[in-house]
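Suppose a classmate hands you a notebook page containing two proteins, each written out with its sequence and a corresponding row of structure tokens. How would you begin to make sense of it? This section walks through that situation. The first entry is reproduced here exactly as it would appear on such a page.
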Amino acid sequence: MNRFNDRYSKLIYHLFYEDSWCSLNELSNKTGFSKSTLWRDLVLMDSSLPSQWKIEKSETHGVRLVKPQNGTLEELWLYFKRENPYFQTLRMIITNNGVTMNDITQQIHVSRPTIYRQLEKIEGVIKKSGVNLSHSPFKLVGDEKNIRRLIMQYVEYMAGELNEFVISFDIKEFQEALLNILKEHQTTLHLGAIQKLAIIQQIMIFNKGTIIELIKYL
């Protein structure tokens, strides 16, 4: 998942800790990306920063990140992960069990050429997880275990998104019901395993449209 944001993460990291003006040459040397690529990223990034954050640009001094007094790198990075169009597109593909180009452009409000570039990047990344992307509609295809693993990585990487991802049933009720079943079978599971089962259940609902019996996964 980090491959989606590799360039952004390096750029944000250096700007945050530099805490002063930084030339494009310096940023290029530190991140390993060209000045033209970094400039495009800076323009796009500045237009989507949270309130009280700003990227200042100067022909003389370069660029610098202006942040609120108590602003943290974690806060900024979580915001970018949520706003990143790649993750928005991937989320649509996952949660809708396949989407059309019209679906994506209407939801994310970007041009078709931009979406195609995003989909190419998504396709290249997910292939490394043993998952392919079908077209018309765009949908994750491949071994079910690989797809589940990829989606779990997505949810875990997005940190704090579990309640937003699991939307077809109540997580607390699911946990209570599962704990009762485990008690009957005189066994236990740690919280992380229970959360993964909740993710699996939601994935199955996305794929099948119904709640699936999970006893076979215990």
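The notebook's second entry, a different protein, reads as follows.
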Amino acid sequence: MRFTYTLGGVDGAGTMPVSTADIVLDFDNAAASRTAVTLNPNRAETSTGLITSTLKSQDVLNTAQYPEIVFISRSVTAKPGGAVVTGDVTVRGVTRPLTLEATIYRPEGSAPGDRSKLTVRLTGAINRHDFGASGYPDLVEETVTLDIRARLRLSD
């Protein structure tokens, strides 16, 4: 997962690996689709070691006590070009509602209708203060944007 933030008026970016993802897509009935994604904040990376260690610290994500970030969908609604995924995200043991925009892509050169390999992109934003990740409020803005990409292969 890629995330962006603003620190001292300067935009920054980082990554956080997906530990597990369980994504079920029903192209005939979007409401039957579902997703559950677990991120590993202990393995997050930013542009500098200082920012990365601060992100993991007790004042922000407190990864020693909260080693996972989890999103579980409650509903999926189809829309032209993708879907809206509504669910709950848990950060630092605090669960809040989150709505993500979903877009689905096939690899370049794929035959129309080929669903054997897909990429799902989920985008949205959270307010870090909603989860108690409030360290350094004079330096770091409250909004963190999310960009999750999952590569899927057709299963039986």
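A careful reader of the second entry would note: Strands lie at 2-7, 10-15, 18-24, 34-39, 45-46, 69-79, 82-91, 94-105, 117-127, 143-153.
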